[in-house]
Design goal:
By secondary structure, the protein is an all-alpha fold. The chain has twelve helices and no strands. It is a multi-pass membrane protein.
Length: about 270
């Protein structure tokens, strides 16, 4: 439907343009500093000329970003896959069963959003130590799955409650069991919320610093954020190398985000309907 261009529309466009500029300034500063010589004394928004790519080479070699990116990718992919599978399977009966235990179990999962993660640091660390997982990627994966499930189950459950049961009932009448109906009918229908769950958890896990630092300390394993932190010391902080490392590590997650962005708002909005 055609809408007239009014003064209100102009004001909204100006506000959006200004907001875009404000959000773009940190990104410009990030890339700009990464292209400056290490000993450059100019400000973050003073454009580097001539630009240099030496910082990227040094950041890659000194921080061993190659191995760190592989570890980050393994942790992120395995964690997100487990979160999607477990959360979707848990949300299906919570959304379809109307008994009291289903409602209270759903509230129990939601309680995981309220409890501060810091309260569980000591018992979780001692548990991982007792089962000899400190220093392994499995420890970080377990923690990520546990912390990512409550919100993911919330999104899946509320989305499924708004999803008609017609296709499932038809599949059950044709002889499909509940598991087959879920895999073949229900899970493809929740693709928008699955994309939202993937991207939200992936961004958080990829950028996670404290958990890998705590559980991988003293081992040969490290992740990209922890590797970049190696350029920070008590007396010297090499900002061009840090920013170059940040640019390198942000590129993979940006590619994934732009690939899934059409599902993010759709799935998030659908998940909040319930």
């Amino acid at each position: 439907m055609y809408r007239r261009y009014t003064a209100t529309t102009l004001i909204r466009e100006i506000v959006l343009i200004l907001a875009a500029i404000v959000f773009a300034i940190p990104l410009v500063a990030l890339v700009n500093v990464s292209l400056k010589p290490v000993n450059s004394g100019t400000g973050a928004l003073t454009f580097a000329w001539p630009p240099t790519l030496d910082n990227y080479v040094q950041a890659w070699e000194q921080a061993e970003l190659g191995a760190a990116l592989v570890n980050s990718a393994v942790i992120a992919v395995v964690s997100v896959a487990l979160i999607v599978i477990i959360s979707a399977l848990a949300a299906y009966p919570l959304a379809r069963v109307t008994r009291g235990w289903s409602r209270w179990t759903f509230y129990l999962f939601i309680g995981g959003l309220i409890v501060p993660a810091q309260l569980a640091l000591l018992p979780l660390y001692t548990t991982m130590r007792d089962i000899h997982l400190i220093g392994s990627l499995a420890a970080v994966i377990f923690i990520n799955v546990g912390t990512g499930m409550p919100f993911s189950i919330f999104l899946y459950t509320t989305f499924l409650r708004e999803l008609p049961m017609d296709y499932e009932e038809a599949a059950l009448l044709d002889g499909c069991g509940p598991v087959r109906a879920f895999v073949s009918i229900v899970f493809p229908l929740v693709r928008p919320v699955t994309g939202t769950v993937i991207i939200l958890n992936l961004v958080g896990i990829w950028n996670e610093f404290f958990v890998p630092l705590l559980y991988l300390s003293g081992s040969d394993n490290t992740t990209a954020p922890v590797a970049i932190y190696s350029f920070v010391s008590q007396y010297v902080t090499v900002w061009p190398l840090i920013f170059a490392g940040l640019v390198i590590t942000v590129i993979p997650i940006l590619i994934v985000y732009f690939s899934l962005q059409k599902y993010v708002i759709k799935g998030f909005a659908g998940g909040l309907k319930g």
